[in-house]
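Reviewers asked in the last cycle whether our approach scales beyond single polypeptides. To address this, we selected a multi-component target totalling 682 residues and predicted its structure end to end. The input consisted of the following lines:
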Amino acid sequence: MDLATFLVQCLNALQYGLLLFLVASGLTLIFGIMGVINLAHGSFYMIGAYLAYALAPWVALHLGGGFFTALLLGMMLAVAFGYALEWGFVSYLYEREHLQQVLMTYGLILVFEELRSLLAGDDVHGVKPPDWLTGSVPLGDLMTYPVYRLFMSGVCIAVALGLYVVIARTRIGMAIRAGASNREMVQSLGVNIRFLYRVVFAAGVALAVLAGMIAAPVSSVYPGMGNQVLIISFVVVVIGGIGSIRGAFLASLLVGVVDTFGKVLFPQAAGVLVYVLMAAILLWRPEGLFRQG
Amino acid sequence: MNGRSQKIAAVLCAAALTVTAAAAQAQSKIKVGFMLPYTGTYAALGNAIENGFRLYVQEQGGKLGGREIEYFKVDDESEPSKAVDNINKLIKRDNVDVVVGTVHSGVVMAMAKVAKDTNTLLVIPNAGARAVTGPMCAPSIFRASFSNWQPGYAMGKVAGEKGAKKVVTITWKYAAGDESVEGFKDGIAASGGQVVKELTLPFPNVEFQALLTEIAAAKPDAVYAFFAGGGAVKFVKDYDAAGLGKTIPLYGPGFLTDGTLEAQGASAQGLLTTLHYADGLDLPKDKAFRAAYQAAYKAAPDVYAVQGYDSAQLLAVGLNAVKGDVAKRAELVAAMEKAKIDSPRGTFTLSKSHEPVQDIYLRKVEGTQNKVAGVAVKALADPSPGCKM
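The resulting structure, written as structure tokens, was:
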């Protein structure tokens, strides 16, 4: 591998890692702060991608807007959807065992998959990126790098910064962190913890939906796309330390690097390298890189 | 009653039973068991295959070999771990005379094992796993579709003829991908080129960027890719977005662009692929088939519908030869082996290993169609290594 190729591979690793973070951040919020094992997280990602596919023509026709109008609308729908879902299902899970949480959220996967099949069919569909992001930057003498991928990375960095500021620097972030440590105590201090959790869950769903919508032009939309994302997201969350945004960020980049270079250097073992990494880190630090609370 | 008359009575009884059984056989229906995916990702393929099969039977007045056909259905869910149970439902519970299935290669391997062990007649309407007509081949197992090796070989030959000397292949690391690449290597070796690098990634991973960078660094004359469904869409788009589409020709088996062109859009235009079926074949049989299918199901047929239709045709040849008497298995199999099927894809015969010997078309993507651009290899037969029959 010469230097130019190596640098391009580093860029690939960074870009993949950032996208992983976007998906995994919502999971670590819900899993770490609310203590709910949410297997349906991959479904939210899938719903996001299908929203991007379904909303684009509708938005263009009725609102005259483009990609970003659809994105905004999708996010609003996602927050409302997440809020309703917490109210209707997830709020009953906090005091229950993990097994029951797994059963409930696994059931949700089946329901969402079937609804997807009924509403959108089982075909693969493409989603167009906005016109001004379709170009590409030359890279080396043969390759070019699509501008849209750079844009995706930008969005991921912005979300990472935004999450960090909200969780670490604001009052609501403080209440969320406190709620993760001791729910009852925070409640007795006069914080409406039910509402707070509802908001956190909605935010987690919105992050997954955002990831799905942003990724749709690159990944296309197809049945079962959420399940692939779910497993790797759990790997990221576990490596990073459950509930830690900073940990998820570092873990995403780490997984990005291992996956990218693993595919190139050890193609025979590429499928397991990420899990080997996870096992090694758990041996070294059983709670992950940064355990919260 | 003494011993002697008892014996006579027993013989008479047995004779009477045989006669009634034979009579029942002549009148009863032939039981066809569909073991196909009716749910999940491949549901559309399963339905197309069944529709194609039923269309041919309807055209024959609902009868094959003079007997009416009764259908049984099992949803295989494309789930290899349930395959043995599922095929046994058809064989043991429903007592079917022939099993038709399936799409998924892993499922078909388990089915073939059971069919071989129980000597059940099996007609495979899609799955291209080579082993089924290779080491696992059996007199009772027929395939009416293709082997994964065939389109790969044809593409390899064409790539070599177009002057590609050094080619990089890329696929998921699983049986179908390996078999397709094997075919490509055999094909390009026959026309003067070679594969210099085989890239793989775990199924069903779709993060191609790292390997696309490797391709750019290797600077090959061409790339051969085996992917299907969502992975095919993403690969073709990523390949184009990485700027490789302009400089390094991308080749693949037909699955790279079949049923995915709407999603692939501009990035797939002009791609060359090989398959045993194509859009715009100027064959009377194809035109008639397409019109009949459209009229019956209000939908355009695809390659899977063709394969379902041909499965029924192949079975019909056998059943007609024995006039519907499925007990005459040896004659039935012998007739099917010699069959010349007038398929919408063009006429094909069967190889010794019960695999279609067929023309593989070169196709070019135009709009949302895989337009035929000639015949890549005429009457191509998979050598089916390992088949002793």
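The two ends of chain B are 52 Å apart (CA to CA). We regard this as preliminary and will revisit it once experimental data from Aim 1 are available.
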